[in-house]
Amino acid sequence: MNTTFPSHRPPADERRFCSEAVEHKLIEVKAAISDPELAWLFSNCFPNTLDTTVLKGKNAGGETDTCIITGDIHAMWLRDSTNQIWPYLPLAAEDPELQDMLEGLIRRQADCVRTDPYANAFLPDLDAPPHWASDFTEMRAGVHERKFEVDSLCAFLRLSAGFYAVCPETKVFDERWMEAIQLVIQTFRAEQGVEESPYSFAREFDRPTESLQDGKGFPVKACGMVKSYFRPSDDATTFHFLVPANAMAVVNLRAVAAMPQAADVAGDLLLLAEEIDAGIQSQGKVKHAEFGEIYAYEVDGFGSSWVMDDANIPSLLGLPYLGYCKIEDPLYQNTRRLLWSENNPYFARGKAGEGIGGPHVGPDWIWPMSIMVKALTTDDDDEIVACLRQLLNTHAETGFMHEAFQKDDAYRFSRKWFSWANSLFGEVIIKLYHEKPQLLKQRF
Asked: Does domain 15-441 have CATH number 1.50.10.10?
């Protein structure tokens, strides 16, 4: 292991975007970290989204327009872009340039939803020909991929409500934003399973998780929840009522309903949230022989369920992080114990570490994101320290977080440049700085 830690950030003149508030926060938090490797890892990861993924310009009306690529894929996911900038949000009020950039991202996300509310990822140029043009679905200009994931629209809601909480005087919530909000409501209503969905998707590919059976997937019985044909990993769901994605919808529909700019549709947002939550409570829980009552990952409304978790957020492990329940909630704790065990088919434990993965990279691969979410959803100091130690031991001397690593060899990893994971790591450290600063005084 290296004993010296030179910065892995791009030179200052090559960084995509610079925020004085973020730089000051980095210096402040780094100074509070006693372990030199942990401090180095934080200083590389926390600003990585701003350093490498921000494409900031102007739209046709002369307003700021911000595209946030994921990293090694030159496209913007609604989900990823919200999560990538999330740790910077509390700093926006004190940095006009950062506020302007974030307003540009909200504007861009609203334009993406208005382009196609069923798409999960978009091109930097919304007038460009679609990327996956050979997919059997209604591909439109500007769309990178058209996998319908409930959490994509939830990410737009989350960013809107989160930004409003910090910068309530913003003018970004205009008629185009309202049109996008109305499309979210309309799309969720269309996917509650009451009537035939207008959406279909198929792809010629050698992995079954890349396509839907007959373009539609398996049947569901309406219960209030919204169908998510794909997971936040971009893998196809087996049973379309994806419980953690619907939980995220409940939280963020209510959050946007509380914004004065959404007053005209607040009743619709709240009613939808109530119906989805009722569906989770009636159909999203199952009885497990060892762990008692738990949340299922996916259900179909007919009584079928899949008990597992996927590391991507929204996840069952992350329900408190999403704001759906409290950490101490008994139902969540039952679920959590199952998820972090061999009873979850995508939990792995090996020589390099332990954690949750998913079908996207297959068994025996651990996503650092799951370790971070575990740290964010516990008050146990020992558990948090164990998570930090694992993250330090599995970045493979790169100074960054990865998509996944092999359970017995952390030097076998996927995605060297994965901005969301870097931002989430920064979020973990900042949360500890504010809530448990004593843990950052340890040497690991």
From this structure: yes
Q: What is the pLDDT of residues 371-426, one digit of tens each?
A: 999 999 999 999 999 999 999 999 999 999 999 999 999 999 999 999 999 999 99
Token digits for 27? 């210096």
Residue 65 forms beta bridges with which residues? 57
CA dihedral 223, 226, 230, 232 (to 10 degrees): -120
Q: Where are the domains of the chain?
A: 15-441
Q: Contact at 8 Å (CB) between 370 and 317?
A: yes
Inter-residue contact 131 to 159 (CB < 8 Å): no
Q: What's the Cα-to-Cα distance from 313 to each of 106, 152, 435, rounded to whole Å?
A: 20, 11, 22
Please write the tens of the pLDDT for every residue from 57-103: 999 999 999 999 999 999 999 999 999 999 999 999 999 999 999 99
Three-state secondary structure string covering the chain? CCCCCCCCCCCHHHCCCCCHHHHHHHHHHHHCCCCHHHHHHHHHHCCHHHHHCEEEEECCCCCEEEEECCECCCCEEHHHHHHHHHHHHHHHHHCHHHHHHHHHHHHHHHHHHHHCCCCCEECCCCCCCCCCCCCECCCCCCEEECCCCHHHHHHHHHHHHHHHHHCCCCCCCCHHHHHHHHHHHHHHHHCCCCCCCCCCCECCCCCHHHCCHHHCCCCCCCCCCCCCCECCCCCECCCCEEHHHHHHHHHHHHHHHCCHHHHHHHHHHHHHHHHHHHHHHHHCEEEECCCEEEECCEECCCCCEECCCCCCCCCCCCHHHHCCCCCCCHHHHHHHHHHCCCCCCCEEECCCCEEECCCCCCCCEECHHHHHHHHHCCCCHHHHHHHHHHHHHCCCCCCCCCCEEECCEEEEEECCCEHHHHHHHHHHHHHHHHHCHHHHHCCC
Query: 176 near 110, Cβ under 8 Å?
Result: yes
Amino acid code (one letter) for 90: P
Give the chain's length: 444
